[in-house]
Amino acid sequence: MKTQSNANELIDRYLSQLDDALRDVPADRRVQIVEEVANHIAEGRSMLDVEDEVSVQALLDRVGDPATIAEEAGATRTPARVADAWVPWLLLFGGFALLAGWFVGVALLWSSKVWKVSDKLLGTFVVPGGLALLLPLSAWLIAAPLIDGIVVFLFALVAPVITAVHLDRVRRAG
Amino acid sequence: MPPLTNILCMVPGDDAVWIAQLRRGSVEHCVLALLSHGERYGFDLARTLADSGGLIGSEGTIYPLLARLRKNGLVESTWQESAEGPPRRYYQLTEAGQLALTAFIDHWKVFRAAVDGILEEATSR
C-alpha cells in the first residue's frame, strides 16, 4: 500500500535525523535513545485510527524536533575544553619537541575536568615522555640482552599508545 | 493571571532559556514521582508529561532524561512483552530514586513558598 510505505519512509527519515543529531552523545546512550524513540513511534502508530502521512507526521511532531532531543541528551555532558582533545596526542608525541610538548600535555591533563584522577595518573606515568622515551632508551636497548631489549622496547612503544587511545575514548564518552 | 501552563506554552525567544532551566530542575523529579506508585513504560510517561501542559517540550525529550536517571541509578528498567505492539521497556524507582524524590519534595515545598512569597509581594503593590 502506498500510504503505508510513505509513512514508513517518514519514520525512517525521522529516526536517521535523530541518530545524526545524537552523534556527539556516547554510543551506548545514543543507541538506547534511538531505540526507545523508535518504540515510542511504533506504540503511537498502533494507536492511530487512520494511518496516513498526515497522522504519522502529527505523531512525529509530538515526539519533537531531533535537535531538541539531542540538546536534552547533551545537557549534562562533562564540560570539555577544546584543548582537551589535544591532551592524549601531546602526551604521546609532545616529548619529541624537547619534552616541552609532553609537559604542556601533562599540565592540560591535570587541569581538565574530563578525566578522573586514575586516568590522570595513568596519563602521566605510562609512560613519562610518551614515545620520545624510546630515544634515550635506544642506547641502552642496543647493549641489553635481546629478550630484555625486545620486551622493554615493545612496552615503551605500545603502553603510551594504549594510554593515549584510552584517554581519547574517555574524553569522547564525556 | 493566566494559568502557568499557558504562560509556558506561549513564550517565545529568550524566555525559552529560563523555561528550559525551570524544567531541567523539576521534570526529572516529576518522572520519579510518576514512578512512585509502580513501574511505567516510556510512552506512557511521555504522554502523561506532555498532556500535563508545559512540563516537557516534546514527548521525545523524555528518553534522554530517562537514560540519565538510569545512569545515575535513580531508576532501573526491564523489557516486557506487550500484548499489542512492540516490547516495552518498563521503568521502576530504585531505593536511591525514592530517597531523591523524598528529598526533592521537601526542598520543593520550601522553594515554592519562598518564590510565591516574593512574587506575591511584588504583584500586590
What is the rounded distance between the termini of chain A? 45 Å
Order of helices and strands of chain B: HHEHHEEH
Structural class of chain A: mainly alpha
Strand content of chain A: under 5%
Helix content of chain A: over 70%
Q: What is the alpha-carbon Rg of chain A in Å?
A: 25 Å
Largest interface: A-B, 25 and 23 residues
Task: Give a description of the structure.
The complex is a heterodimer of chains A (174) and B (125). Chain A folds into 2 domains: 2-74, no CATH class; 82-173, no CATH class. Chain A is built from 9 helices and no strands. Chain A has helices at 2-21, 27-46, 53-63, 66-74, 87-93, 100-111, 117-125, 134-143, 146-173. In chain A, helix 1 (2-21) packs parallel to helix 4. Chain A is elongated and about 80 Å long. Chain A starts with a helix and ends with a helix. The mean pLDDT of chain A is 86. Chain B has 5 helices and 3 strands. Chain B is mainly alpha-helical. Chain B has a 3-stranded antiparallel beta sheet with strand order 1-3-2. In chain B, a hairpin with a 7-residue loop joins strand 2 (75-80) and strand 3 (88-93). Chain B has one domain (13-123): Winged helix-like DNA-binding domain superfamily/Winged helix DNA-binding domain (Arc Repressor Mutant, subunit A, Orthogonal Bundle). Chain B starts with a helix and ends with a helix. The chains are: A mainly alpha (174), B mainly alpha (125). Chain A binds chain B through residues 18, 25, 29, 32-33, 36-37, 39-40, 42-44, 46, 62-66, 68-70, 72-73, 75-76, and chain B through 24, 42-43, 46, 50, 57-61, 63-68, 71, 84-89.
